[in-house]
């Protein structure tokens, strides 16, 4: 059975998240799933330790986490949805062979709602070189009228954690000035 957990205190679930990260790192070598939490790491565990990802949505199969992602505080006004998103390979396709979109189906709405409730002015979805192939997927979902149609593509890339990122944004406060986007 597939279910969802909304973790607003991820530190309380560090054991379960660490177990997921072990599996994800073993199958992928993805540095975001490293079992390190020091400042030089890009890992999810570092973000949890330093409270820069204060909310995580996890998809469960039975009682095991099979996919997760979080909301990252970029600054006091800006958050990034879908951070450290990872789905175990076994669960990436549905029984009918179609790709599962756990982010869209289970994570997007609670992350957006949480961001609004915590007073962020704009929510971002970002794509670096490693995952920019997902941009056409987001754009296709927008054309279909699914979850992301209210997001707009930002006209320039933004440097986030020393990495150039493509950005889609949704203003949560219409008065937010997008020129403040890159201010830390």
Attribute tags:
8-stranded mixed sheet, 8 strands, 25% helix
Walk me through this protein's architecture.
- Helix content is 25%, strand content 29%.
- It has 184 residues and is of the alpha+beta class.
- The chain has one domain (2-174): Aminopeptidase, CATH 3.40.630.
- Strands 1, 2, 3, 4, 5, 6, 7 and 8 form an 8-stranded mixed beta sheet that branches.
- Strand 2 (55-61) and strand 3 (64-73) form a beta hairpin.
- The longest helix is centred in the middle third of the chain and has 16 residues, at 102-117.
| pLDDT < 50 stretches | none
Largest sheet: 8 strands, mixed
Calculate the mean pLDDT score and round it: 90
The helix tally amounts to 4
Number of strands: 8
Distance between the termini: 41 Å
What is the third-level CATH name, the topology? Aminopeptidase
The shape is globular
CATH architecture descriptor: 3-Layer(aba) Sandwich
What is the string of SSEs from the N terminus onward? EHHEEEHEHEEE
Structural class designation: alpha+beta
DSSP strand (E) fraction?
25-35%
Quickly name the level 1 CATH class.
Alpha Beta
Instruction: Compute the CA-based radius of gyration.
Output: 16 Å
CATH superfamily: Gcn5-related N-acetyltransferase (GNAT)
Q: Which percent bin holds the helix content? A: 25-40%
Number of domains: 1
Short note summarizing the structure:
25% of the residues lie in helices and 29% in strands. The protein is built from 4 helices and 8 strands. Strands 1, 2, 3, 4, 5, 6, 7 and 8 form an 8-stranded mixed beta sheet that branches.
